[in-house]
């Protein structure tokens, strides 16, 4: 199971079952993957004693960066047997993780982030376009044929 989805489900259970924050880290430990347990074996007791710190340490070590969350959100597709409600929930959680990883807490920050992401995307496309044109130009120079595609 994907780590962000695992933590999403765990947090929903914590809420539904009203598990106090002080016990959440201990409750979740037996259900962690071997890889996650290995990550936790290398951190301090201060981190393993707090669910939030533990989750952050695992996600950081698994390299779930803002760009990974954004890519997962943008590439997420609905499974054939998945309801639109479940798909919507999955998309929303991916977006929540992305916004959380970018430290966005209010509407103004969301707007700034969207504009910033769009500018970065346009810059990337521009750089790729220039790079492609340079490659084509180099090929034409190498072959000596200015009309070759």
Count of individual beta strands: 0
Our count of domains comes out at 2
Strand content: under 5%
Uncertain segments: none
**SSE order, one letter for each helix or strand:** HHHHHHHH
Structural class: mainly alpha
What is the helix tally? Answer: 8
Radius of gyration: 22 Å
Helix percent band: over 70%
**Main sheet record:** none
Compute the average pLDDT: 83
End-to-end distance: 46 Å
Shape designation: elongated
Structure description:
The chain is mainly alpha-helical and 149 residues long. 73% of the residues lie in helices and 0% in strands. The protein has eight helices and no strands. It has helices at residues 3-16, 21-28, 34-40, 45-48, 51-61, 66-75, 84-101, 107-143. Helix 6 packs antiparallel against helix 7 (84-101).
Helix-strand blueprint:
Elements: H1 3-16, H2 21-28, H3 34-40, H4 45-48, H5 51-61, H6 66-75, H7 84-101, H8 107-143
How would you sum up this structure in a few lines?
The protein has 149 residues and is mostly helical.
What key phrases describe this protein's structure?
single chain; 2 domains; 149 residues; mainly alpha; 0% strand
């Amino acid at each position: 199971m994907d780590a962000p989805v695992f933590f999403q489900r765990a947090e929903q259970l914590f809420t539904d079952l009203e598990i106090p924050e002080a016990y959440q880290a201990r409750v979740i430990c037996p259900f962690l993957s071997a890889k996650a347990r290995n990550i936790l074996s290398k951190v301090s007791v201060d981190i393993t004693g707090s669910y939030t710190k533990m989750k952050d340490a695992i996600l950081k070590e698994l390299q779930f960066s803002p760009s990974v969350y954004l890519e997962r959100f943008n590439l997420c597709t609905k499974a054939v047997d998945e309801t639109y409600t479940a798909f919507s929930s999955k998309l929303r959680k991916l977006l929540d993780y992305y916004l959380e990883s970018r430290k966005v807490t209010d509407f103004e920050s969301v707007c700034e982030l969207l504009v910033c992401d769009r500018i970065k995307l346009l810059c990337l496309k521009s750089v790729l376009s220039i790079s492609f044109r340079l490659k084509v130009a180099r090929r034409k120079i190498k072959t000596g044929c200015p009309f070759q595609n």
